[in-house]
Structure of Citrate synthase:
Amino acid sequence: MSAKGLEGIVATQSSISSIIDGVLTYAGINIDELAENASFEEVVYLLWHGRLPKADELAQLKKDLAENATIPEDVIALLKASPEGNHPMSVLRTAISALALYDPEAQDMTREANLRKATRLQAKVATVIAAYHRLRQGKEIVAPRPDFCLAQNFLYMLNGEEPNQIAIDALDTALVLHADHELNASTFAARVTVATLSDIYSGITSAIGALKGPLHGGANEAVMAMLEDIKDPEQAESYVREKLAQKVKIMGFGHRVYKDGDPRAKHLRKMSEKLTGITGQPQWYEMSVKIDELVTSEKGLKPNVDFYSASVYHSLGIPRDLFTPIFAISRMAGWTAHILEQYENNRLIRPRAEYVGPVNAHYVPLDER
Ligand SMILES: CC(C)(COP(=O)(O)OP(=O)(O)OC[C@H]1O[C@@H](n2cnc3c(N)ncnc32)[C@H](O)[C@@H]1OP(=O)(O)O)[C@@H](O)C(=O)NCCC(=O)NCCS
């Protein structure tokens, strides 16, 4: 019997992150501790090297990220030439693939070269998204600042003005929370691709394609679409009851692995409450809580990482179709860590399918069909 969706299948060994009894850790450190204390750059280092950086190592990583944050003119031209109306995740998938063409080390498979490419990818992904957003609005792109951390730079490049500390901290924590998640769909896609000994850019392109779907990273955007559709917290209950009666999935709920709640959701819920209060738009938080209580009591499904991220990103002034690209900025850390790990101890990933099609069929000539 095949396991539909590979549910429960342990497909590899990994020392990057774990979900054991509903507890998420990165290299053994509980996500709650990291959410409270770590910067995104510390987490990037942790995922790549399996330990927290010392002060000089962290400073070097920040310097490397800042120095690699610009993108080639040709890729900017590609962003400019992207036809209107495409989803930013489609543009990101194409731009990341294009970056490979401008990386002289793209085909160098040594660990050192792959680590350098991981640094470049981590540095450039935020620039690509911010630049595309500026260009589609007919605005000039904003060059990254070498003295800014990644979260700060992204908001700066997006809006063209220096973000406040509350916004920087909120985005930084959101990036920490999304950075890795064991063998999730996009990470698995990345590992399958590079297990053929294809290059890191191919792996990341596969991962971005997988993240885009609404059952994975695309859910955060779908949550905001639902909140905007509901508009008024008073309407939340009837809206959700109707959807449930129609057997429509409520985005941002349920999880393949967590059956008793996603440990990341409580951090985002707290952030949502704070940020929606600061922006004077508490309705998004109030509505979210009503939906949370209803779906939990009616279906026994708890919110996942995407549910409260929607109102968090909205409060940061980020347009809805950039929510999933932000997920990609963060998960780039995990994807690249998993790709490095896959190369270290590689074997082609090639499962089997249980055949359920016709048997003993024969070729019939065209004019006899
Ligand atoms: C995350 C998700 C894809 C996991 O999928 P899965 O492990 O394959 O679980 P299934 O889709 O088989 O769901 C099992 C049951 O719960 C129901 N269910 C799962 N998620 C649901 C949701 N968000 N809303 C309503 N019902 C849901 C399914 O309809 C199914 O019911 P059934 O047995 O009566 O058919 C799924 O929960 C989902 O689609 N959630 C919404 C999208 C989302 O938020 N994704 C982000 C994940 S971090």
Observations:
- Residues 219-315 form a domain with the Cytochrome p450-Terp; domain 2 fold (CATH 1.10.230.10).
